[in-house]
User: Fold Pentacotripeptide-repeat region of PRORP domain-containing protein from Papaver somniferum.
Amino acid sequence: MSRFPKFLSPKQLLKLLKAEKNTNSALTLFDSATQHPTYTCHTPDVFQHILPRLTESKLVSQVPRILTLIQTQRCKCSEDVALSALKVYSDNKMPDKALEIFQQMNEIFGCNPGIRSCNSLLNAFVMSNQYDRAESFFAYFETRFETNLETYNVMMKILCKRNKFDKAKEFLDWMWSKGLKPDVISYGTLINSYVKSGDFVNALEVFDEMPDRGVSPDVVCYNTLIDGLFKLGNLTKAMEIWDRLCGDYYVFPTVVTYNVMLNGLCKCGEFDESFKIWQRMLMNEHRPDSFTFCTLIHGLCKSGNVDGAYRVYTGMIKSGYVPNVVTSNAMLTGFCKAGRIGVCRGLWDSMGKANCRNIVSHNILMKGLFEKSMVDEAISIWELFPEDGCVPDSCTYGIVIHGLCENGYLSKAIRVLKEAEDGGGNLDIFAYSSLVKGLSGEGRLDEAISIFEQTRKCGCKPNSIMYNELINGFIKISKLLDAMRLFEEMKANGCPPTTATYNTLINGLCRAEKIVDASAILKEMLSNGREPDLVTYSSLIDGVCKIKKIDMALQLFVRMIKEFKPDVNLYNILIHGLCSVGRIEEALNIHLAMKSCHCPPNLVTHNTIMDGLYKARDCKKASEIWSQIFEEGLKPDIISYNIVINGLCLSNQLDAAVRLLDQALVQGLLPTVITWSILVKAVLNSASPLMICTFSRNIKDVYVHPCDAKGYALSQRLEADYFQRA
Assistant:
């Protein structure tokens, strides 16, 4: 009461109500006014203001008492007040309540229904999807009232909601023929329905018809089309409609338009373009809302532009918006992916102070820490769960177990799994498959199989990742029969083999030189609709090269390059195969072609071709390859030196071989047993006892560590040979 002036009139009350933005407070003012000593009674203007504010679902229950008050006060109102009440019920999908008001309009408001009231009730039926009642009501009132464009727009809505688009289009043409002049609402209704059904051909046709008919599209029409086209993934057409909007002198983008553009561009991966739209929005002085900020932050983080995202994030806070946990998590994810763990921790702390952290936040940070091998820090976040009132979910356990496995903490990962199982934790297949993968990779197959069996007992169905890892584990230890048994079990248990499964088996069989069996697996792979990839071809070509079927390897290579671009590994396999059977010229041709195919040779390529040339006694070309290694900025390894040393020894250039060994030592490369074996053989084949003695001392000078017993053994062999010759 203290807020009211001494003398309160309905006009003053209306002014106070309009100034009060909170609907609950406005309703309190409305009720309090009736108790004011100088206030008479509410006027139609006051009722017309308060009724539309009760549209919120929590406040719609207040409408009956307001209507009772109107009736009790015998306040004669216009149809506008009745329309306000009808709209409240229509928006809340309460057509029966709307019908009651329509039937009692004279008793409540002191006025009779007009065409606008009919249209409002008709729309209430449509909003509630009660199309039969709507059509029955239309049949009732069209003979009693003079229908107008609004009436037919509602009828258009009925046809569209019933997916009768052809009839809706015919209805639009009929309206023109009757001189009703459809408006932007008529067209907008049809365009929106076409877009929702995915029929953009007709949607754009109707949109293009509007200017020809003298109807200007509004921004809602543009927004509907742009949003629909983005959802369809048609970026080009969406941008075309955007350009048309920008060139329309009568329509301007709204905040909703910019939100649609930003959301669509981000989902299409056009992050740079989305940032341009954002800058245009600010330049045109449109105030971004929370959706704008969230959309752009998500998009920029996804694109890797975390600094740009953080600027938007801080701008959001400065604009008075409080980032919700979803937006903050997006920012946290962005920094984690960028490896900015220090910034992550700062954001994490600020989220905690704002009480804006959930289980997803914990999962994101733990994942980021594990990926940076910060295991202790990740576990410290894991230990915060009870304190923060978070219950680990399946994603949490998956992240922790996977993170521990990836960082080599397999035993701890097993303990976490057991604790989760014993405590009734929510575990999914990712946790189990991570352990199977980790254990298989470390050669702990028995434990991996145990976890695999445990998966079934816990109600999880083993997936292709688990089968693939175990199959690969068996192949690594040459247990092909066990690998094939598991492969058959995989199929029998309804887990379709993946391309990786077939590749693993083909690779294992080819390494074991079981080309016939590998071909059978390839045939099955093709029959099951799995297309061979580069890995498949590489394994097969390597396999046939091993059994010296080089022509078959070349045929496979020719077939493969029709579909895939060979990588350096495949070229190396083929070059090695050709060199192994003395087809050096063909190997050189492939070596030469690699650069023109945008696949430059690597050190392995050069080593392979150089070895082949030396074995063919083509020292000149081999020397050219050696020079090429340095020209291309590659650094020879001990294998490179071994190949050249061996080549020089085979050409009786022992002095040059020894000088090259000195060069390797200067480069910090330690000779291997192979190095010494090559040189020992060459020295023993020489006729110089002095060379034998000198070289023996050189070996002792290099192999000074007690562990280098093989070096001492070689020097002793040389000395024995020296004394024998002496």
About this structure: The first helix runs from residue 10 to 19.
